[in-house]
Amino acid sequence: MNNLSDLWHGIKTNRGAVVSIAVVLAAIVVSLIAPVVTPHDPFGADLDSVRSGPCLRHPFGTDELGRDILSRVIYGSRTSLAIAGAATCIAVVIGTLVGIVGGYARGKTDLALVGITDLTLAFPSLLLAIGITVVLGPSAYTVLLALALVGWATFARLVRGLAISISETDYVRAAVAAGCSRTRILLAHVLPNCLPLIIVAASLRFGAFILGESALSFLGLGVRPPMPSLGSMVNLGREFMRAAPWMTFFPGAVIALLILCFNTIGDALRDHLDPRLKLGQHN
Amino acid sequence: MNLISCRVLCLAAVVLLLGCARRDVPSDTVRWHLQESPTTLDPTFVVDVAGGRIAAKLFNGLLRLDEQGRIIPDIASDWQISEDGRTYTFGIRDGVYFSNGREVTAEDVKFSLERLLSPEVASPRRWILSHVAGAKEFQDGNADSIAGIDVVDGNTVKIKLDEPFAPFPYLLTMPNVAIIPAEEVERWGPDFGFHPVGTGPFVLTEWEPDVRLKLEANPRYFEGVPRVRAIEYRIIPEALTAVVEFENENLDVMEIPWAEVSRYVASAQWSGFVHSRTGLNIHYLGFNCQMEPFSDVRVRRAMNHAIDRRRIAGTVLEERVEPAVGPIPPGLVEAPQLTDGYDYDRERASRLLEEAGFDKGLKTRLFLSSGREELTVCEVIQSYLREVGVEAELVPLEWSAFKKAVASGEAPLFYLSWWADYPEAESFLFPTFHSSNWGAAGNRARFGSKEVDLAIEEAHRTIDDSARALKYRQIERMVVEEAPWVFLWYRKEFYIRQPRVGGFRLFPIYCADKGTGMFFEDLKTR
Amino acid sequence: MRSYLIRRLLLAIPTILGVTLVTFLLMRSIPGDPVIGMVGERADPEVISQMRHDLGLDKPLAVQYVRYIRMLCRGELGRSHYTNRPVVESIAKKFPNTLKLAGAAVVIAIFAGLALGITAAVTRGRFLDRLCSVTASLGIATPVFWLALLLVMLFSYALGWLPASGMGGGAPAFIILPALSLGTRSAAYLARITRSSMLEIMTQDYLRTARAKGLGEAAVTLKHAARNALIPVITLAGLDFGSYLNGAVLTETIFGWNGIGRFAMEAILKRDYPVILGTVLIGAVAFIIVNLIVDILYAVVDPRISGSRR
User: Fold this and answer.
1) The CATH number fitting domain B28-41+195-278+493-523, selected from 3.40.50.1980, 3.40.190.10, 3.20.20.105, 1.10.600.10
2) Taking a C-beta distance cutoff of 8 angstroms, is the pair B488, B284 a contact?
């Protein structure tokens, strides 16, 4: 696909995007080799150095059980990236399917699918995610499911609009006239033209999923302890904000950094692929 | 629109709003911090701490507690127990008035007690009067009134019990047995909890739900008008916010949040105004004694030996708790405290586990309610247990889901606490260890031992206080040997007050504080 | 246009019904039992089952749902399981607070967003532009709850300028930090959109004509470019209602703001079913209405956009 190398050339000039890609790649690599790289055991309580401040041994300080915050941040980022990544994939797959089928087929199928999409979008996303996690009980998989179930609808809407306009173009009409099967048209013509949009939307959504996961963990509805999660670290450090502000500061800063990087990448992709979209994307 | 003048305006607005962080200090109102909203102020239904604390200031019962936790007369001016220990005779004071102006009579006592047991009302606290003769028939709807409550005349009430029950006077000090006026209850119906009318030293004048409540002094209070004109309860769920408000002089009394205790205790400026007391509670790890592997007493003892309570109390919990030996907190029983409990001994723990057949390790699940404190504590406990080969997976649940799991027996291991309803050791033994109370009634460990049951029942019947105290210690020793819990610690409470608040004391139990001891110091003369 | 409106309104009704059904099902699937939380310690099983009966919790789900819908049609929302207060009363007291907070957040978003965006557009390419753009990106990326905590640390603890929580009976100082936390994200989006749409318009011909007429640069910028660039922008920016509802849950919890977000959150944790249903319903209805208004404004302001969006 010459699209990919085109993409790379287009983004190369955007310094922010390049830095962000580097940071994200570094984060992914660190996540993969986390057990090798972390300086201390993120799970081992060390009751002698409870709540000590940043120093050479513990660059981010220690938490209320004496555990090294840097190590826990590394493991926490790993969890956040994994959950956000998986949620994005699932949401993209569901949303694209629903959007393409509805947008192309029209008629009753479309109406039904639009109804479900609108229903999902009628709920404020966080509340719906909270509802799902509370029902299924907090855990990494529940968060994943909740984020995906809440997030697919925006993709569906987006893809549907695009699918409709693509299906009205001349060469699709020609393909229909030529007797191509529906599936073939969908896969060979509609889908590839939606891809750039999907990629942009996915990279922007990734940041939103990281935010969602950390918000759910912050509320106590996320990954179960003792598995560290950036959001729950911010929550647990809340009480000690005066006595030990590093407990809240560093995990939150890392969340912001990850989201910033993904947003920058998404923006660069969007600027390159479709400047028309600048006015649209909010959530 | 001139950008510059716009910016100047904004700056001016900001400057004006600064310094609005402090508010005027009212000279006659004590501003008290509450972490949660009270659910209701209807004595028959109050079960939460916030509600009980406020209800204590709005109502009176027959008896109440003093600062040392001893029983003193309240609306009852005197009381006697019959020889066989089954009949209590109360003389009702004259000159006690409800805030609607009517004087209290013995009929009101009967009404209030019957309301607590009434089947239509279905109060969650009706167990308090379950020992009264005729209570069961009344509850089942087979009787129109309780046979055991006898209004002898306008000033005298006799209460007869099925059997002698020594802690009964303590039960009468609970806020649920407050004396309430029948006409107001009928008038307000289900809303009586929002418009409480009682005999207490204060009267509710304002209630903004989830924001604040205001109580004003009752000029006709039978023990004399309180020295503070009003108490305002401000509901601030966020702990650190309360701290900032306190330091900005917008709060007079505050319960010090966990994280700030060491700072205040060490501070030269504030340490003189910190009040602390070991509360009447016990925090423990409960086992489901009817479920493997915890049905084996050796496993339970091993778990007790595996956790270094002293170290946790000293480091993670910064001395905010007192390590426990048995289930009864200090200061309750007039008999020598138990000293031999379970020491931290890893080898012993491993040996016991081996004997029980778990030398290859043990897998279990530790249920807890998902609060920050609970999570921290359980994570430390988890790492201690891991050292002796016990893998405890943490299962944090929402409060009501957690209670359900524990009450139904689903949880093999759980972290919980038990708080006294009245300062008598019985409340730490009967509900928690008697085999009739499995599940939601209090015995969450599903512990059952014939000896312990009989000993508790015998203690119930022992009217003599010192003899009963000795029996309680014996029961405690039996319970510690059987180890249905890991006895962790007793939690201390820490309060701080502004220098201007005088006469502030911590009562052994929150509902004993009627708020009448406080006054405002004249700081200028110091 | 009118048919579009009518169609949207009609579609809203089944959506709202769907919301109640989904909420009801979700809610009743939540593990845990409100009654156990309400009875306190030492409750005997009889009291528990009587309470369940009184609250109608022992009937089959379908019956409970129908009962609930009937109650809704009467205009009632029931009473809280915990406090026994009518839900309508509580919501009526708390919803305005959330609206106040959202309103203040919108004001901050507009002021800050416009200021940043215009500055960036006007000083295009220079240091100030980069600064504003980076600030905007940070504003979007920063999690609301972390930002709120940082603001409290800085302005309350360290500097002591602003109160850390509570509503202060309406005193203006109390709304600043929560509104700032809530509005920062929208401000950042608005800044970016302002910048790019101003840049687009600033290069257009009619502006060159205006300059040629001899008007000062500032006048050109503000009077012509700003006005044309910002009409659609303002419409969109302040009305990002969904994100305000989300952020409100977190912000209200941290700042102890007595609004509907915190109310809903606490009710979920306590399994207070009537309150959960009531708040989600009101929230969703408000959300649907606001989205409807936004879509209509979209269509009115720029028919091009409404065409391609659908």
Assistant:
1) 3.40.190.10
2) yes
CB B291 within 8 A of CB B498: no
Confidence label for C309 from pLDDT (cuts 50, 70 and 90): very low
Q: Report CB contact under 8 Å: C47, B123.
A: yes
Structure tokens at B386: 């891991």
In residues, how long is chain A?
283
pLDDT digits (tens, 9 = 90+) for C4-24: 777 777 877 787 788 888 878
Mean pLDDT lowest among A137-146, A175-184, B41-50, B117-126: A175-184
Domain locations in chain B? 28-41+195-278+493-523, 60-190, 281-492
Q: Does C45 touch chain B (CB under 8 A)?
A: yes
Confidence of residue C226 (pLDDT cuts 50, 70, 90): low
Q: Which of B316, B378, B410 should be substituted to probe chain A, the one whose Cβ sees the most A Cβ atoms within 10 Å?
A: B316
Residue from B426, B419, B450, B452 nearest B164 by CA: B426
Give B228's Cβ-side CA count (13 Å radius): 30
Q: Which domains does chain A have, with CATH numbers?
A: 4-34+73-277 (1.10.3720.10)
User: Do strands B413-419 and B362-369 pair parallel, antiparallel, or not at all (unpaired)?
Assistant: parallel
Cα B87 vs. chain centroid, distance in angstroms?
Answer: 28
pLDDT in tens, A221-231: 888 777 888 99
HSE at residue B401, side-chain half, CA atoms within 13 A, is 21
Residue range B60-190, CATH number: 3.90.76.10
pLDDT at B301: 93
Q: Which residues of C touch B404 (CB under 8 A)?
A: 31-33, 36
Q: Which residues 182-221 on chain C approach chain B with CB closer than 8 angstroms? A: none
How far from the centroid of its chain's Cα atoms is residue B128's Cα?
Answer: 15
Subunit contact B239:A239, Cβ cutoff 8 A: yes
Whether B122 and C157 lie within 8 Å, measured CB to CB = no
- The Cβ-side half-sphere exposure at A95, using a 13 Å CA radius, reads 32
- Determine the Cα angle at C169 with ends C162 and B17, to 5°: 35
Q: Which chains touch C (3 or more CB pairs under 8 A)?
A: A, B
Which of 169-188 (C) contact A at CB < 8 A?
none
8 Å CB contact of B396 and A225:
yes
Q: What pLDDT, in 10s, does the model give residues C34-67?
A: 777 677 777 777 777 877 887 777 778 788 888 8
pLDDT of residue B28: 85
C245 touches chain A (CB under 8 A): yes
Query: pLDDT digit string (tens) for B127-174?
Result: 888 889 888 888 888 888 888 888 988 889 999 999 899 899 999 999
Q: Does domain B281-492 have CATH number 3.10.105.10?
A: yes
Residues of A with CB under 8 A from a CB of B: 43-45, 47-48, 50, 64-66, 134, 137-138, 220, 224-226, 235-236, 238-243
Could you tell me how many CB contacts below 8 A there are between chain A and chain C? 135
pTM of the model: 0.82
| Chain A residue with Cα closest to C189 | A282
* Contact between residue B286 and residue B485 where contact means Cβ atoms under 8 Å apart: yes
With an 8 Å Cβ cutoff, is C148 touching chain B?
no
Q: What is the pLDDT of residue C102?
A: 87
pLDDT above 90 covers a percentage of chain B that reads 43
